[in-house]
Design brief:
The structure is a homodimer of 88-residue chains. Chain A has 88 residues and is of the alpha+beta class. The first copy, chain A, has a three-stranded antiparallel β-sheet with strand order 2-1-3. Chain A starts with a strand and ends in a 5-residue tail after the last strand. At the A-B interface, strand 1, helix 1, strand 2 and helix 2 of A face strand 1, helix 1, strand 2 and helix 2 of B.
Amino acid sequence: MLWTAHIRVSVKQNVLDPEGQAVQRALHMLHFDSVTSVRVGTYVCVQCTANDEAEAMQRVSQMCDTLLANPVTEQYAIQLERVEAHDA
Amino acid sequence: MLWTAHIRVSVKQNVLDPEGQAVQRALHMLHFDSVTSVRVGTYVCVQCTANDEAEAMQRVSQMCDTLLANPVTEQYAIQLERVEAHDA
């Protein structure tokens, strides 16, 4: 079974995010005055095979822990989506 | 009303993504052999005020079109979440 994992990696709340602050200032300059906070991170879209959702989630979490996120300063969230096979 | 918008900005399917290819190679070297594709993009988390979900979606789409995404090479997806007021 093929799975698509949408991974959002972002800096933790107590860590400074200068890129987010810059984007927030830019949005205010463009008159988006309703914006109260901006955080910028990395989006990673991984396709992988796994027998079921639990296995896919476990694999992707392991990828985040070992490579995709820095556990000291970053947090991550994973959304899984099953890819329908076209030639089943 | 306060809204949190989770924005995933990624390069379009037909545009080369060398960063994604590098991450895919790194994952294979770490023995994540089940990975078939990786795309890397930007994750932006914006908090803004709006009267309802439609208005929030319209505002955030406008931010993406004018600043957060490059319409030529990038695509974006928005997920909205209402922030519950603590002092309502």
